[in-house]
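Worked Example 4.2. Consider the chain below.
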Amino acid sequence: MKDWIIRWISWAAWLLAPMTGWGQTPDTLGIVIDSSEFYEETERFVLRPGDQSLLYYQDSLMVHGRGVPVRPFGDTLFGLYPSRRQPWRLARQERRRIEHYLIDLANRDRFVPDSLGIKADSAGLIILYGDSLITRIGLKESSLLRHSEEEVARWYADRIWGDLQANHADILKGKYWFLLASLIITILLILAINFAFSWVRKRVGKSNNTLAKISKVLTFKHVQLVTPDNAERTILGILGILRWVILLFVAYSLLPVILTKFGLTRDIGNTLMGWIIDPITGFFNSLVAFIPNLITIIIYIMIYRFILRGLVYIFQEIGAGNIRINGFYSEWAIPTLNLLKFLGIIFLLIFTFPLLPGSSGQTFQAISVFLGAVISLGSSSVVANAVGGVVLTYMRPFKKGDRIQAANVTGDVVERNILVTRIRTPKNEVVTVPNAQIVNSHAINYTTASKMGNLILHTSVTIGYDVPWEQVQELLITAANKTKGIITDNEMKQPFVLQTSLDDYYVAYEINAYTDKPTKMPAIYSELHKNIIIEFGKANVEILSPAYRANRDGNDLTIPENLLQLGREERKDSQSTEDKNPPPEDSK
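Applying the procedure from the previous section yields the following C-alpha cells:
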C-alpha cells in the first residue's frame, strides 16, 4: 500500500511538471545499453538487455526538468533528483563533485574493474570505487525511475563503468600522442634555437662597423673602454650563456608538462611545475600588491623634484648675484643647494623605505641593522671630515687658488670637497689634508691679506752689540728695497725694522716688508736673504752669534774678500764725492 501511494504521487508530479515549468533544463539522450556487467565482491549483477525503461524514464525526467544531469564526458550518465525541500544548489554542487571524480578516474593510468561496487547502507544503496563514494540510490530515485533500488544501482554502475572504459582508452591514447608531439616540438624548438644563435653569431662576426660603433659609444673622455675585439668576444659570450639558459628552460618546462599527464609521475611533475609557477606567481602577486605603495612613492618623488626645482632656481640666482640676502654670501649658494639636496634625499628615503616590498621582513631588517652598525662604527672619521667640510664652507677661511698654511702645509689650494682639502706646495707636491684636521688647527691665508698689499714678510738676524743699530736697520732696509716682489713705491708700506729681543750677547733684528705676491713667497724670501748677506758683507758687518766669536783665534774676518773690496771701493767713492762737494758753511 505504501509503495503504491508513493508511485501514484511520483506519477502526479511527473504529469504536473510540464505545466508548472519547475526546474526544466535541456538534456541530451543517453546511450542504450544492450548488455553490461560488473563485479562486487563475489556477487554478479547483469542488466537485462531488453530492459530500457530506466533510460526512458530518466530521459523523460530530464526533459521535464525534474533532475540535474551528470555528464562528465558529454553524454548523460544518470541524474540527481532533489526534493522540493532540498535546494537545487546542493544538487548542482554534488553533480560537480561526481563529474570531477569520474574525470579523474578516466585520467588515471589504470583502474581496476573489481574496485567498482554496490553496497547497502541505512539510507539505501551506494556506488563506490574502492572506498570513494560516487553516488547514492534511495527510495526517491527508485520511485521516479519506477524500478527497484537494486535495478537502478546496477544500471547506474553499468553506465559509469562503460563510459569510463570508453573514455579511458581515448584519454590514454591522447596522452601518448601528446608525449610524441611534445618530444617532436621540443626537438624542433631546440634545432630552431641553435640555428638562430648560429646565425646571430655569424652576423656578429661580420658586422665590423657595428662593433666599431659600439666601441665608439663606450668611449669616455677619449678613453676607449671596449675595443671592437673585446666587444665581439663579450657579445659572443653573452649569446652563448643566453643560448644555454633558453635550452635549459625549454627542457625544464617540457619535463613537468609530460610528467603530469601520467598518474605515477604526476606528483613529481606538479612539484617541478611548482618550482616554476610559484616564484613567477609570487612575483606577480607581490608586484600587484606593491602598486599602491609604488604610486605613493612616485607622488613623494614628484613632490621632492618640484621642491628641488624651486630651490635650484633660487640658489642659482643667489650665486649669480641676482638675489641678495644680507649675511648670505653668493659662494654659499651651491654648497647650500647640495646640502639641501642631500637632506632631501635622506628624508625621501625615510618616507619611502617602509613602503618598499620586504622592508618589514626580518632579513631586510637584519641587513639594515648590520649596515647601520658598520657605518656608525667605521665612519666616525668620515663623518668628522664631512662636518668639517660643512664648517669650512660657511667659515670661508680660504677658497680655491689661495695661498694658505694649514696643518703645517704651505701651498695653493687646488681642491676642496666635503671630506678633504688638497694643497699644492711650492715643490709641486699635492698634499691631501682632512677637513677635520684643518678645523681642529689653525689656517693662515696669505692671499686675503695680499689683495690690498698688506701681507708682511719678515725674517730675523742677530748682530752683536758692537754694531750700531742704525747701521743694521739701514742695511736691512736697503736689502729689502733691492728685493723683487717687495712693495717700495708706496710711502705707507715701506720696509721697517723691529728689534725683537736683547739677548746676552747679541741683538735680534727683524726686517718687515710688504708684498702683494703671496704665491712667490719662497722666491722673495730667498732673494731677501741673499741681499741681506750682500749688504752686510759690503758694510763689513758679520752676521754671527757670540758663540761663534768666542772661538775666534785672531784670524781674518769671515767676510768674503770680494765683498770687503767692494765695500772699500764704495766708501772711497763716497769720500771722494764729499771732498768735491763740501757742505755749506752754515751746516758747519
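The chain has a mean pLDDT of 77. The longest strand covers residues 455-464. Compare this with Example 4.1 before moving on.
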